[in-house]
Amino acid sequence: MAQELLTGKTAIVTGGNSGIGLEAAIVFAERGANVILAVRNEEKGQAARKGILAKQPQARVDVMKLDLADLASVREFADQFKSRFHTLDLLINNAGVMTPPLSKTKDGFELQFGSNHLGHFALTGLLFPLLARTPDSRVVTISSLAHKGAAIDFDNLDGSKGYKAMKFYGQSKLANLLFAMELDKRCKEHGLPIKSMACHPGISATNLFKFGKRDAPQFLKTLANRLLQPPAMGALPTVYAATESTLTGGEYIGPDGKGQRKGFPAIDTPHSVANDEATSKKLWDVSEELTGVKFDFSR
């Protein structure tokens, strides 16, 4: 294994204020990257930044507002980033919501599909020109074990014909995985120097495990930390996908333990549902149509 130092490189981590996103951001900052915490709640983002700087006073960490459930916010973030930076080495599509009651984004999409997938699809597309001009740039999209057995229900993406929270979470995580693989395929076809890969944290005790808008009771948090791996371990597949020099793009990284639930990062095999070429292409076309964002592979 040869994991790179990141001195002089720029990394965006969506949802970088907590959980595995924060743990990955800490590692990137320690390795010398200029880290952008792209967060919905700027107050929490600033608190995370202060925490990183307390451990690493020389770290370069900025906070920028990004609401993936609002395409206007995604566009504003991309515009502001492009006004400040001309290259982008790492885009970590990490932020996510898990199993809320049926909810909608600002644009009317089902919240999990809209923010977990469509928001990241649009963000990647809008930042794509910077990625394309940056040597050895990478896009890492966080999927989940929940993609197994999931399906993309193109006739009910908004949940109007029935909604089950966990089913729609699995759909959004399958979409993340299909997007990551399709992006890498298209980059290779057009000779672009961008590697796209997916990863998953196994089963990690993060703040995704909430009861609606309420935190889980403390005894459940304690139990979760015993049974599940802590966020720092859950972040290792993200760090590996972002920094391991032997990866060529298109890999799926997860923990190496039993059932891929815990352990150290290794190349994993996606469920067969992630290998459907027709679904990947249709998802790409539908995502472009819904977001109004098209990728420019002409470079």
TrEMBL record:
Superkingdom, taxonomy of origin: Bacteria
Residues passing through the membrane, by range = none
Gene3D superfamilies given in the database record: NAD(P)-binding Rossmann-like Domain
Q: Name one Pfam family in it.
A: adh_short
Keywords of the record: Oxidoreductase
Q: Does the keyword Oxidoreductase apply?
A: yes
InterPro entries registered for this protein in UniProt: NAD(P)-bd_dom_sf, SDR_fam
Protein name stated in the entry: Oxidoreductase
Q: Which organism is it from?
A: Planococcus shixiaomingii
